[in-house]
Write a structure and sequence with these properties.
The chain has about 70 residues and is an alpha+beta fold. It has one domain (about 5-65): Flavin-binding protein dodecin (Dodecin subunit-like), CATH 3.30.1660. It contains one helix and three strands. A three-stranded antiparallel β-sheet has the order 1-3-2, with helices on one face. It starts with a strand and ends with a strand. The mean pLDDT is about 95. This is Dodecin domain-containing protein. Pfam families: Dodecin (PF07311). It comes from Thiobacillus denitrificans.
């Protein structure tokens, strides 16, 4: 039997939503083992002078407990 836990993280990128997701998962994987999946809870952007300057995502990560 496996037990899973879900945590929520936020990440941002100056390039894209996809890059923010990738960076968030890679950063979390440095301290959280056994990440099995992720889902994007929310997306937002920061606008500066009429242009998107940052892409932000809130992610929920699922990992299996040892």
């Amino acid at each position: 039997m496996s037990i899973a836990k879900i945590i929520e993280i936020s990440a941002e990128s100056t390039d894209s939503f996809e890059d923010a997701i990738r960076q968030g998962i890679e950063a979390a994987a440095k301290t959280v083992r056994n990440i099995q999946g992720a889902w994007v809870k929310e997306q937002s952007v920061v606008v500066h002078a009429g242009n998107i300057s940052k892409y932000r995502v809130d992610l929920k990560l699922t990992f299996v407990l040892d």
